[in-house]
Specification:
The chain is mainly beta and 160 residues long. It has one domain: Jelly Rolls (Sandwich), CATH 2.60.120.200. Helices cover 0% and strands 41% of the residues. It has no helices and ten strands. Strands 1, 2, 3, 5, 8 and 10 form a six-stranded antiparallel sheet that branches. Strands 4-9-6-7 form a four-stranded antiparallel sheet, with no helix packed on it. It comes from Dicaeum eximium. This is MALR1 protein. It holds the Pfam family MAM.
Length: 160
């Protein structure tokens, strides 16, 4: 896929996530960074990059917001596939939908750390009659050594 449709975080260029290098709660790193798990990306590559929650987070949560998507139609639903890592029960990873006419973010998917210390993959499908943004939200209650929330390889279908 083109850089428009896929964010693998190997570079700082990711048109669909225009602000990911500005968001203070997330850090772009690889498994060799000395920052704890994950020690590789979802392909098992220790030098490949992903995003994880920073240990210097100011608050307990950090958001990653996409650019604005146009309304979907019946032929082209917006499908978003992503790999995620949630290592502890006290941590949550959520995906939210913000429609143009609404101030609030609707939670459309979430997971807490019951699947410990492994990469998992999920695909969400979005159907919206108006412009929308998608928000990836990582949350941790406490910051202990070896805890981590991470995201890698976000792929957006043509309908997004």
């Amino acid at each position: 896929g083109s850089s428009w449709n896929n964010c693998d975080f190997e570079t700082n260029l990711c048109k669909i996530l225009p602000e990911f290098n500005l968001e203070p709660g997330w850090v772009r790193r690889n498994g060799q960074s000395g920052m704890g798990p994950p020690y590789a990306d979802h392909n098992g590559n220790e030098s490949a990059y992903f995003l994880s929650l920073s240990s210097e987070m100011q608050s307990s949560s950090a958001a990653l917001r996409t650019s604005v998507f146009l309304p979907t139609d019946e032929e082209h639903l917006c499908q978003i596939r992503f790999h995620y890592w949630v290592s502890q029960m006290s941590e949550t990873f959520m995906v939210g939908l913000q429609k143009h006419s609404e101030d609030t973010v609707t939670n459309i998917w979430q997971v807490s750390g019951e699947l410990r210390n492994q990469w998992n993959v999920n695909t969400i499908t979005i159907n919206s009659t108006e412009k929308f943004e998608v928000i990836f939200l990582g949350m941790m209650e406490t910051q202990r050594q070896g805890e981590s929330v991470a995201i890698d390889d976000i792929t957006f279908s043509e309908g997004c």
